């Protein structure tokens, strides 16, 4: 959640990991800033800390002045989407990796800030996957992020909120990373008659439809 420098990545893409096992270790950049105050000779290195090559060079110094912390898996699953290597500088809010449980697939979608007030946990969703054609899967909104973030959309940068949708059913041939399209059902009307649009007529008084009354259309 906060900016840091990666010490060691302890897993690989495709690894199955159990809850509680270590996945990576890191140094808080606050520790490095504290070291700067006490040891001015490393101040020059920190000025370019966001450059990956320089960040890697800081690991040696960090080991002298700080203690790394380890992150452990919060659930069983398959590791995928690793976006870090040893020595990388990671900005606040960056996605580092994913742990996908095949028995509880989660889909992350970004909802524009103009629509997020319509979304609630527990709402149902219909999901399709590009790789699994002509089939609709059911899901449930299980989490809504507390913070909004800037994302790239069709019209440029936009503010959105991350929403997690969990699949209701186990899908054996579904793989982490597949492209999906999600439709969240925000409201439902019951006892509604649905008719084809082409049956609707209109005149100066408004729209109407014909129905059969005995042997006549009225």
Structure overview:
The chain has 218 residues and is mainly beta. 13% of the residues lie in helices and 41% in strands. It has three helices and 16 strands. It has a five-stranded antiparallel sheet with strand order 8-11-10-9-12, with no helix packed on it. A four-stranded antiparallel sheet has the order 4-3-1-6. The radius of gyration is 26 Å and the shape is elongated.
Q: Note the main sheet.
A: 5 strands, antiparallel
Helix tally?
3
As residue ranges, the low-confidence spans are: none
Distance between the termini: 65 Å
Q: Identify the strand order in the major beta sheet.
A: 8-11-10-9-12
- Shape, per Cα inertia axes: elongated
Rg from alpha-carbon coordinates: 26 Å
